[in-house]
Amino acid sequence: MIQMMQIGKSNVTAPKMILGTFALGGGTSWQDTTGDDAELVRFLQEAREYGITGFDTAPVYGTGRSERLLSEVIRKDREKLYVSTKCSLNWRVKEGIMEYERDGKQVFRCYRKEELIRDCEESLRRLKTDYIDCLIVHRCPELDQIGETMEALEELKNRELIRCAGFSNILGSKTPELVVETALRYGRVDLLQEKANLLMRKKVEQIRAICEKHDITFQCHSPLERGALAGKLHAGIATWKNDNRSNNKWFQEKNIPLVLDLIEGLKPVAEQYGCSVPVLCIAWLKAQTPLMNLLIGARRMESLKDTLHALEIDLKEDAVKKMNTLADRAVSQLS
Fold first, then answer.
1. pLDDT of residue 230
2. Pairing relationship of beta strands 54-56 and 82-87 according to DSSP bridges
């Protein structure tokens, strides 16, 4: 059974490891995903039967597809599950900042109170649920937008449509700590969801410090750098067009050898702990702080089952230092 943890200072508990659904419903942002809804629902159902009780999604993951697929699985025993989704990115109104155009939809980022509330209400309908355990603000609002954003989140809490709330990708701000401190003037922030992995140690330390200062859950996403640390990287990936990895530096052909060398260096450490390199990298994140919540992506049960082993691994200090050294060397050579 997956260990449970408290989310921030709320009364919400969640499994230490949560299954993310970006790659399942992400449309053409993932060139290697399947268009077979039934296949993806079967995977989610199998994951649930295997013991997964936490799921993370967002309206823009396939412009509603991910939430609709997830609804088929969570409705049977909703009260036993932790479900998070997001707000602020929508294809409903052309207001705010245009983020991108994909799959025939223009997606805008908007922090108006009324639109954030509508984001949540629409997610509830797609998910076919009465409440969301944690609503996460997608992207980072400007400082002068935080007050209105928090007003929306507090109203949704008062209406019992959400149980707690958080922010994602606050490192998009030049002053991430000020973002959190400003938000805390208006209400409670229980979770920060941020891209975090072995290849971005300085940013991991930055978010960890903020979370530990304010007793906020640090939820990592992209723990394997979109799959770069999964051990299956090859030059052909760099040629994918419009895939969300196509602009990632680690997927550029000139940098792939750095990743492959890093993985080779990590293999002896993984062997020491009897695990795969991807599992070792996730265990490294778990070792960073007790406040860490692991958000992992998977589309196949064998991969998901392997990833769960990270919860059983407690890395010793010398292993963490060895991994830090190897990662720092790779980062220093990145071009």
1. 87
2. parallel
